[in-house]
Amino acid sequence: MSAQAPSAVVLVRAERFRPNPATAADNAFQADAPAGQSEDDTAARALAEMDAVADALRAVGVRVHVFSDSDHTRPDSVFPNNWLSTHAGGQVAVYPMYASNRRHERRADVLEMLKSDYRVQTIVDYSGLERDGIFLEGTGAMVLDHVSRVAYAARSHRADTHVLERFCTDFGYEPMAFEAVDSQGVPVYHTNVIGCVGTDVALFALGMIPDEQRREQVRERLSVNGRTVVEITEEQVREFAGNAVELCGRTPEGRRRYVMVMSARARASLRDDQVAAIEESCEIVAVDIPTIELAGGSVRCMIAGVHLDRRPQVEPEITEAVEAIDEHPRTADGRDLMEGTPAS
Predict the structure, then answer these.
(1) What is the domain-level CATH number for residue 306?
(2) Closest among 65, 68, 75, 105 to 310, alpha carbons compared
(3) pLDDT per residue over 193-229, tens digit each?
(4) N or C: more exposed end of the chain, with fewer CB within 10 A?
(5) 281 domain-assigned
(6) CB 60 within 8 A of CB 336
């Protein structure tokens, strides 16, 4: 398994997607649906885009766990990377969210699946910090280099540096926080819109870090192990070129296949030389998701990577024997463990 590029992901199929009014004030990338387009039409278009992302990932050999969500009060649940991250060694983190209507996106059934299918040792839950008005929105607020163990974070009220340092202590990362703003001086709301880190290549809008010394420190840290740094512009950031993620798939013959997944809009914004630099180490997989991008996030935001060791698969005859004993196993408090089973 690659340290940086997970071979499995969690996606949420949000059946009632719409741009979230509660996040519009500080998300400069968010936009309204086209005039005259109903909420039902917006939701249906977004569902088709979510399915297209899942299909594209499966086509390159990535394992995809899809969870359905029909709750109309969770318009942003398509973005699970903000509340969940997983880490080598069996560690899982659950994060505090800024918008109050996003906090119930956290799902016990997702955590139960991870514990069932993968080796989970520890779940560290920071969500209680919401009561103190302190937030760190997962791998939206942080861009993690799992190889060099660095957590890059643009400071904002969605990325509190005290929680960042606590996370880094708990999970063994070096915090690297910085200011990042657009040409109008508006702070970047999530670090993952301005950059992503792959195994051998990183895309980063270094020009949006106004402090020259800090900018060069970030550049040096990104490239210290020989990683190629592809600098993207603010204009490309607005096309979501920074909101990409490297995954590890499989060819039909079973060989590893590294892919950089991004939206079609992001891919179209890249210059030929940037594409060539990325494709030296991984192929680009681009999916058209214009409706989902209305919410101010793109492909990276949709993907919660699974950096955990998979458990051995149970033999079918053993499964049948267990089912014969109890078709609906329950916890000690009587809760049905089959509740919330993901749609694969």
Answers:
(1) 3.75.10.10
(2) 65
(3) 999 999 999 999 999 999 999 999 999 999 998 999 9
(4) C
(5) yes
(6) no
